[in-house]
Please model this.
Amino acid sequence: MPEPVKKLMILNILDILRRYSDENHTLSQKDIVDILQDKYYMTVERKSIRRNLLNLMEYGYKIEYKEYVRTVPNRITGEPEESYVWSDFYLERDFTDSELSLLIDSIMFFKNIPYTQKKDLIKKIEGLSNEYFRSRVKHILTTPESNPINKQLFYTIEILDEAIGHSRKVKFLYNEFGLDKKFHPKKTPDGKDKVYTVSPYQIAALNGRYYLIGNTDPHDNVSHYRLDRITDMKISDEPSREIKTVYGLEHGINLPKHVAEHFYMFSGESDTVRFRMKKHILNDVIDWFGTDINFSDETDDEVTARVKVNLQAMCLWAVQYGPYVKVLSPQPLVDEVERNLLQAVGNYGYNCEKTGK
Model:
């Protein structure tokens, strides 16, 4: 066999292990010889297989195998003797198929990633496993997006990673939809595109979307921005504001706690809220607020909950779950929820004063 072809053998054997083996699909040395001949048009002896497998293992590849003992006649004396055979080879992988499936599911249901990029990412993840895994997920397709997609999303993430790593502010346009279903930058009072200057601290994923957690000049509180609505981002030469000087972030960002308090990613004040709830929505409450919530005054059907949460987000949530929830405190939040509910029923021509209800 020519020398250049011999050098390819070890790479082809590694490729065979990656594509055709796992703990449920092991390969004998003969299997590898046959695949080399059928798929790679390379004829080799079985002893070359073992030598190359040993080289791969010495190099650090996690190749599992079994050792079998068999009795064979001695080539010289003809007497029976024990011989050790290696077989059932497979490459141990960094990710299990279940983990890869979880990654694919996460990509499928992420709302900000364009359809074509989802397909490309899924194909790359499939390449981390073998042919058998691909045959199981080839039927998975993500539906083309019905919402407009910001094609600058990945670029924005890269810029933010760099800015956060170097503690630099960023400048960008923040967009909203018009009736033409297209993005349009928010405007200043004189009609110019409004440029936001933000100290970025953290990127968070919530409800299938990416958010930036930071502080916006010249304000003192924490702010949140959806990354899919950001365009034309640039890194500023100005250093970021120290996070401990931002109201609400004095002790840094505890991301699980922060997300639980800001589940709609609204900016503004957080406070301790008490509300009475029907017990049959307990699963929903835990989904929204997490387990950092206290319960008291339980009856057969109801319980009182106490949680620290963003007040603006809580107002929207309380209206959403209006039939099953009554906010008890703080009083300004109670008043705001009541106003929103009255306005909502008023939209349907329901006059509370006339009915006496």
The chain has a mean pLDDT of 85. The longest strand covers residues 80-91. Residues 81 and 204 are 65 Å apart (CA to CA).
